[in-house]
Every structure is written in C-alpha cells, then in structure tokens.
Amino acid sequence: MKRLWEIAKSISLAVWLTAAVILLSLYGAVVMPTHEVFSGMSAGPLFGWMLATPLVYTWWLWAAIALLAVLALNTLFCSIDSLIKKRSGFLLLISPQIIHAGFLFILLAHLLSSIGSYKLSGGIPEDAAVKLPNGVIFRLLDIRADMSPEGFPTDWSARVQYLSSDKTVIKEDTLAPNKPSFYKGIGLYLKDLQLSPSPAALIEASHEPGAPWALAGAILFTIGTVMLVVLKMRQE
Amino acid sequence: MSAYSLADFRVLAIIAVPFYLAGGFAWPFLYAGLLAQAVYLFSRAYDLGRLPLVGVNDTLTFLAASIILFSIPFHRTLKVKKFRWMVALGAAVFSAAAFAQGPYNMPLPPVLKTYWFELHVSLSFFSYALFAIGAALGITYLGNPLDAGLEKKEYKAILFGYLLFSLSMIFGGVWAYLAWGTYWLWTPKELWTSILWLYYTGYLHARFQRQWYGKKAAIIGAAGFAVVLFTYLGVSLLMKSSHSF
Questions:
Q1: Which residue of A has its CA nearest to B204?
Q2: Contact A28 B182 (CB under 8 A)
C-alpha cells in the first residue's frame, strides 16, 4: 500500500503522464487538420461531440482525458503529501500547491464546459425578439457599423434589450467586438452584421459553465507561479 | 508619419542583421542591433497606433529583439563565447527571415483591437525568447558540463519563460472568451500551444528528479525550442487555425 502511495504521488508519475499526454496530443494535432470531422469540435460541448463521433477519430482524446484524470489525482496526492511532510519553508512549500490548485481548477473548468456548454446562433433583424434557453427574452434594437475609406469595417456594435415574460425591460446593453453582454449565465456575442437589404445581426448566445472556474484557476496559477519564480530566482 | 519616413526606419531593421552577426565577436554590437530594431518597432507602433505584432515580419523582428533584450542579464554575468554566438546568430537569422514577408500595414479587424490581444502576443514572444535563451544556455552547458551554473541559468530562463507563456495563455483565454464566447477553441494551434506548455511543465518537474537533473534536463530544456519553433512558425504557416498568418 505504501509503495502504491509513493508511486501515486510521485513526480516521476507526473512526468511520464505528461509525456504520454503530449504524445497523444501530437497525434491529435497531426490528424485534426486532415479530417473534416474535427471542424465541429468547438461548436458544442466536447463530450457531446466525442460521443457522436466514431472512436477511430476520438480514441486519442479519450485516452488523453483518462490520463489527465490520473494526472489530476497525482497532482492532488503530491500536494497532500507535500503539505503533510512540510519539507521546505512556508512560501516554497505553499507556492507549488497554489499552482497545483490552479491547474486542478482549470481541469475542472474544462470538464464542466465539456459537459454543459452550448452555443446557439442566428440572424436577427432589427427590432426582433428571441427567447433564450434560460427563459430570458432579448430584442435587437439597432445596429451600427463604421467603415474605413478603403472599405474595411473599423468598428461595429448592436444595442440589445433584455425583457421579462410580460415584456418589461430588465436591462439594456451594447454588443461590440470583444464586448459581449452577460445576463443570467448566458453571453450574447455579435458575430456579424448585415446592413442591406435590411439591417440584421448574427448573434451567438453562449453558455460556458467552466468560465468562472477557469478564471479562478488562472488567478491561482499565476499567483503560485509568480511566488515560485521569485523564490527560485533568489535560491538557485 | 509619412510612408517615406517609415521606409527610413525600415533601414534600421535591415542593419540590425549585420550588427547581430558582429555581436558574435563583441556584445556592444548586439546592443546596437537591439537599439536599431527597437527604434524601428517603436516607429511602426507610432505609425500604426498599435503594437506591431501581426504577421511574420513583425513577430520575427519582435522575437529577435526580445532574445537580445532578455539575454542582457545573462551575458552580464556570463563570459562564454559559445552562448554569445548562439544568441547573436539566432537574432540575426530571425531578423533576416522577417524579410520573407512584408510588414502588415492594413487596419486590424475590430476583434484584434484589444489590449488582451497585445498582451497575449507580446507575452508569447517574450516567453519564446526566454525559451531560446534557455536552449542556448543548455547547449552551452552540454559543451561545458563542469560549469553547473550554466544549467541553473537555463532553468531560470525557462522558468521565467514558463511564467510569461502561462500568462500569455491566460490572457489569450480571457480574450477568446470575450471575443468568441469560449476560453478554448479546438484548433491545431491551441493543441500545439498546450503541447508546448505541457512540454515545459514536464521539464520543470523532471529537473527535480535526481535521475534527470544535469545533462538530461539540459537536453530536454534545449530541445523545447524546437517545439516552440513549430508551434510558432510551423503551425501558423502550415495549418488552418485562428492563429494563421
């Protein structure tokens, strides 16, 4: 049992698992551009796509996910072991554990998004209203586009209103490139515009349940890595 | 600023190449090359109203300048000719290769007009430069295995590069979430980026192991730059993705 624990929390296991995930990812990176089936990977939840796609295309991804699950456990065990044994000073002890926590949060984020994310998109004319899956109704009020003298679009935006079921206005917001509008867990994104024959916008509604976890993980990872870099630069 | 004056500054990008080559003989030439490229990049940034970080021309020039910039703290304490030559040749080759494509001067699509993009790309190239310096230090160490300080410097360069690369991925994720509604897109570039991140994660962990410490770790660290080059140039030029040039 002790031998099993030694292996389960070892850095060697982490290195070999990482190497195996790299090899599987390399295979994936080579086959992805060669098969049309991979073009739909980002269109919805990853697990939905994987279940609907023949195993001959997805085996490497299933294997990589299985190895990442083992790596997540290895990371957790390594941190537990380090905290129990307290082999170094407080900051040097805690900073890798903060990095590990950030990594685990990011893996959790991908897991949640791979199960529960969705995207819906459609062309919506000005003044039309659409009901979202969470029951919220939004209306496209108007769109605006600025063009450069050479004919390139330099900026564009669209105003939307969120409405309750009795058509009361709850919130008004503006969509623009890199400026989505969020309400009750759904983000509205302005993907494209049509100015003629009648103004309309291609709007995507996106739900990413992993996003808050990814952000939390990224913050933890950054804090831990900055601490470790400072300590190592002084120490080494 | 007129196109005429921009052409003037372009001369600075050209003369950086012989300066870098001469830098193999003496450090001051590397500083002169860096100064020339920095003035060129600042002139482009001033003219375009944004950081010049789009396309092969801008990014290779930025990478060459970053390599020299980040090598300064190392050559202040390191007097090994082999390291100086590798840094000088690397910067010269990247600077010369930048001319394979003309600079991208068109207005940016609205989705690229964000600080997230500039942070994402600039940090990527800073980290690539540190990985290049790490590789040069690793190769230098393999030629002088008795100088353990070289291997430690390789580790430091890669560790700092790893921090910047991780930040670049985080900022890229935030930007992707704001622009496309997801922090992760399944394209070959993103997959290669995660391969690169995993590779250096593996290196940083392997170095802690007694059986990997020293020569083996130095080789792994140095070989990582091949993955960097393919992730940057290979994927962007050969594969269709959100990062294609």
A1: A15
A2: no
Alpha-carbon distance B22 to nearest alpha carbon in chain A (angstroms): 31
- Residues paired with residue A153 on neighbouring β-strands, in sequence order: A147
- As a whole-number percent, the residues of chain A with pLDDT over 70 amount to 100
Q: Do A229 and B160 touch (CB under 8 A)?
A: yes
Residues B77 and B50 sit within 8 Å (Cβ to Cβ): no
Q: Is the pLDDT of residue A82 over 60?
A: yes
- Taking contacts as CB-CB distances below 8 angstroms, the residues of chain B near A22 are 195, 198-199, 202
pLDDT of B245? 47
Which residues from B are below 8 Å from A150, CB to CB? 107
Q: What does the alpha-carbon distance between residue A77 and residue A63 come to, in Å, rounded to a whole number?
A: 21
pLDDT, one tens digit per residue, over B57-81 is 999 999 999 999 999 988 877 778 8
Determine the Cα–Cα distance for residues B122 and B59; give it in Å rounded to an integer.
9
